[in-house]
Amino acid sequence: MNALLTRSLAIGQKASSLLDCYFAPLADLIVRLYIANVFFSAGLTKIQDWDTTILLFTEEYHAPLLPPVVAAVAGTAGELAFPILLALGLAGRLSALGLFGVNVMAVVSYWHVLGMPDQAAGLTQHILWGLLLAMLVAHGPGKLSLDALIQRYLPNKKH
Question: Is 133 exposed, middle or buried (CB count within 10 Å of its CB: 0-12, 13-18, 19+)?
Fold first, then answer.
């Protein structure tokens, strides 16, 4: 029985090691690309018809503390810049944090719609994006990122 337990633990450790080595970096990359696509697509939609974007920020979205034009520019800039950095894994935690802020502002600004019972799917999407972004902030962009590549070539400073 002890040999079976020992063998089972060894197999589990080997499987875990393989997941850490191959699956985790790929999963990190897929999450980064998925989230980057969602927000970058939203930013492209905004710049394709800027007059409508300004109208939406003036009439429909209720961004707290910011004038509508400033909110439109800031939101669109965040949706276009942070996803590029996130997809590359460059300043991965910072770009994920920036998109997390964009996501929170979107929910706050559009709560009068997203908070309605018939909009549960839209709110659920924002919650999913927020959780994935929080994971990237906490975990980092992973091994398949420019951050990891840069870190590999920086001198290791010992304190």
Answer: buried
Residue type, position 130, single letter? G
CA-CA distance, 152 to 100, in Å (whole number)? 27
What one-character-per-residue DSSP string does 18-53 give? HIIIIIHHHHHHHHHHHHHHHHHHHHHHHHHTHHHH
The Cα–Cα gap between 6 and 3 comes to 5
Q: What is this structure's pTM?
A: 0.88
| Measured distance CA(113)–CA(19) in Å, rounded | 41
| 66-91 per-position pLDDT tens digit | 999 999 999 999 999 999 999 999 99
How does pLDDT run across 21-59, given as a tens digit for each residue? Answer: 789 999 999 999 999 999 999 999 999 999 999 999 999
